[in-house]
Automatic annotation (TrEMBL):
GO terms for cellular component: cytosol; ribosome. Residues 33-143 form the MTTase N-terminal domain. It is found in: Cytoplasm. [4Fe-4S] cluster 1 binds at residues 42, 78, 107. It comes from Actibacterium pelagium. The gene is rimO. It is an enzyme of class 2 (transferase). It comes from the Bacteria. This is Ribosomal protein uS12 methylthiotransferase RimO. Catalyzes the methylthiolation of an aspartic acid residue of ribosomal protein uS12. SMART domains: Elp3 (SM00729).
Amino acid sequence: MAYIPRMTTNPPNLRPDLAPTPRFDQKPREGQPTVGMVSLGCPKALVDSERILTRLRAEGYSISPDYSGADAVIVNTCGFLDSAKAESLEAIGEALNENGKVIVTGCLGAEEDYIRGTHPSVLAVTGPHQYEQVLDAVHGAVPPSPDPFVDLMPASGVKLTPRHYSYLKISEGCNHKCKFCIIPEMRGRLASRPAHAVVREAEKLVENGVKELLVISQDTSAYGVDIKHETTKGHRAHISDLARDLGSLGAWVRLHYVYPYPHVRQLIPLMAEGLILPYLDIPFQHAHPDTLKRMARPAAAAKTLDEIAAWRADCPDITLRSTFIVGYPGETEEEFQTLLDWMDEAQLDRVGCFQYENVDGARSNDLPDHVPAEVKQERWDRFMEKAQAISEAKLAAKVGQTMQVLVDEIDEDAATCRTMADAPEIDGNLFIDEGFETLSPGDLVTVEVDEASEYDLWGKLT
C-alpha cells in the first residue's frame, strides 16, 4: 500500500455510539461575544448542538473551537453508558478548569444532582433538547451583542460536520422499553417531526451544497407512528414515504437506527432503484432468544436471518450495519456461541460492539448472574475477531470493482473518501493516493478498487 492512513478508521475498539468530531471554522469579529461548545455522544446530540449554535449565531454570538477564546462554554453531555457519563463529567471538569464559565446540557443534564455533586460551580444544567433554557443560561453568562450588518447567518444554519454531509433528525424519543437503556427516560417517548418540515430542511441543506443526508432518530422505522402517519402539505409521515421524498432531492440518503419491522421491506425496492443508499443500520443487539427476552427486545433472531436473505435477494448490493452487546447479565457461553454462529450466517458488513455496562436507572442492573469483566472482555475479543474476519473477506471481494465515492478530506498524501457502504467515522474509508490533487471535499468521483484491508479500501480514479 502506497498510503497508510494515520489511524485506521473503525478500529475494533471504536464505540459505535459516537458522532463525528465537531468542526468549527468561523472567526469572530472584534468585540463579538464568543461561546465554546463541547459536543459529546451520538449524532442526535450533535444535531442538538447545531440547533443551539444556530440560535446563538442568529443572536450575534461567535462560536469558539477552544476554551481560551470563549466567554463561556456549553458542554452537551451523553448519558448512554456509565463510561459515557464519566467522560461527560471529565469534559465538564476540563471546561471548568480551562474556562470557568460552564453551562451543561444534553442527556446527562437530566440528572442535575448527579452533575452538581461533582461540579457544583457549573452555571446551569438543562436536559436534552431544552434549547430555550440553554439560551437563557448563555444570556445570563454572556449578554448578546448582535450587529445585524455583520452577523449574517448561512441559510443552512450552523453545521458541525463538513459542508458536504449533514445529519437530519426526524424524531425525538423512543417507545421501546429495553432493559439496558434509559434513553426513553432521558428523551421521552417518540415525537415525530411533521414530514413537510423534514423535507423542507433537507431541501435547504441540498440547496446549500450537502451531498449526503444521514437520517437519524432513536427508532427511524417508527417515524410517524405517534402522529398517525399524518399527511401535511403533501408529505406523509411514514418512513417509506419520507425516504422516497428525500431520495428525490438528488443527494445520497443514508438511514440509521432502523428496527427490522416488517414494513422495512418497503424500503428495499427504493434502494434497488438507487433512490436511497443501499444501507441499513439496524441495532440487532444479540441473537439468542433468551438473551433478547432478558433485554426486552423482540426475540426473532432466526426470522431475522430470513429477512436479511430477502433484503439481499431484492437488493444484492445492500450493506448491513449493526451493533451488539456482549456480556449481558445471564449470558451463558452457549448463548454467546449462538451469537457467533448467527454472525457466521448473517455475514453483516459493518459491526460495532459494546461490552455490557450497568447504567444508573436501567432495569438490567437488577438482573441476576452478571458476567465477570474478564469474561466480557474475552467474549468481546472473540466477537470482534469474527466481525473483522467477515469485514476483511467482504472488502477483499470488492477489489476490481468500479464504484462511486464521496470525497471527505484531502491532505498532502491522499484523498479520504467513502463508498455508499460507509457512514462517516463509524465505517471504513476508501483512499485515493494518486492523481487526487484536483479533488475537493464533497466531490463525487468514480474509482476502481485495487486494494483492501480489514476495514478500508484503496482505489484509483477512472
